[in-house]
Specification:
Layout (H helix, E strand, L loop, with lengths): L1 E5 L3 H13 L3 E6 L2 H10 L1 E6 L7 E4 L1 E5 L3 H10 L2 E4 L6 H18 L4 E5 L6 H10 L4 H10 E2 L3 E4 L13 E3 L4 E5 L14 E3 L3 H25 L4 H6 L1 H22 L3 H15 L8 H5 L2 H4 L7 H9 L5 H10 L8 H13 L1 H7 L8 H17 L2
Parallel strand pairs: 1-2, 1-6, 2-5, 3-10, 6-7, 7-8, 11-12
Antiparallel strand pairs: 3-4, 9-11
Helix pairs in contact: 3-4, 4-5, 7-9, 7-10, 9-10, 9-13, 14-17, 15-16, 16-17
Amino acid sequence: MKAVHFGAGNIGRGFIGLLLSQSGYEVFFVTRNKKKIALLQQRRHYRVTLAEANASPITVHNVTAASIDDSSDIADAVTEADLVTTAVGVYALKDIAKSIARGIAQRLRREPRSLNIIACENMVGGSSQLKKWVYSHLTEAARREADRYIAFPNAVVDRIVPLQQHTDILAVTVEPFAEWVIDRSQVIERAPQIQGAIFVDSLAPYIERKLYTLNTGHCAAAYYGYLEGYDTIHQVMENSKMREKVEAVLQETGAMLIQKHHLDERSHQVYVQKILQRFSNPNLMDAVVRVGRSPIRKVSASDRLVRPLLLAYDLGLDTPHLVSLIAAALLFDYGDDAQAVRLQATIQQQGIDRVLSDMVGIPSDHPLHGAIQSDYLRMKSIYGR
């Protein structure tokens, strides 16, 4: 079996590429990094280490790579592929769409058979978004033909991979936990053979459970930890009071998820505790500033902080800890993050009231607007920001 994977970053190598190789696929990486391309072509393997005590590296075999600029090689690879996946980041999907479209067009001309294309990105509906970008590069006739043979199943992926540096640029360290959930209803023909992947009929509960537990909780540890001067998520979680603050946020998102999706309360509490344990992994030195980066995106109305807050409010649930978390996020002033710098400049120029309305998306007449503003001013005074 052959898989084409766009993106040879830490997630691509340490999660998707690893699972695909273990599932019996030859993995063809598409990336921009010339050094990684040369090494993957030369070695045809790399190593992944799980962040746990006494872990031995796992060798990932049967891999190679090509440049995103090698349109002919990519088209040939997509033509022959049994599966196509991506892990390039939300904003880069449009940049790879043309290459995928060329491959699809060639495949339909030469060998029209079914193919699933799965975007493994940290976003809702990543594959659906990728399809829109890909189809924009196809003719109307090719789009009609693609509808018969090509599917873009949405997915949820979950594995913490911190920023890291190795002498070997292909080596990568990842947490032991991994979850890859794929919408079975969107798969064409039959489900791809992927070791450890879960296929479900409805993806929505899994998407929101992951986003509003893992991602929201991660932000809580990062933004609270940043204000207190911690360097890593593990250090934050070692402090019992800080851990309690993170868990309090997850109890609020959990109450919303349980009510909205009719989740089993006991099972969800087990899931919450598992998330907290993952944050506490002493072998995973994940920087607070890495997790907290891009605060403008994370405080937008549709993302991991404000969206669960609004959903909980609509269900009549109390959310003092989510309110406090958003206030903490608005105080994230890390100078090496472009969005953090822009956020602080906007607050200084326009005021917190305007930012809450325009950037966060909570109008001034909404009760939550005043609550966040009050917490923001209180915390700003406490932390001298």
